[in-house]
Amino acid sequence: MGAIIVIALYILFLGDVWTDSLDVEGSRYLMDSWIMSGVLAITSITATMGAFGTFVDDRAKGIIRDFNASPVKKYEMAGGYILSTFIIGIIMSLVALIFAEAYIVASGGEFLSAVNMLKVLGIMLLSVISSSALVFFIVSFFHTTQSFATASTILGTLIGFITGVFIPIGALPSVIQWVVMIFPVSHSALLFRQVFMEAPMSASFAGAPSNVIADFNHEMGVTFTYGNFTPGFEFSIVVLIITAALFYILAILNLSRKNKV
Question: Between the CA of residue 65 and those of 35, 62, 254, what are the distances in Å?
Answer without folding.
Answer: 43, 5, 15
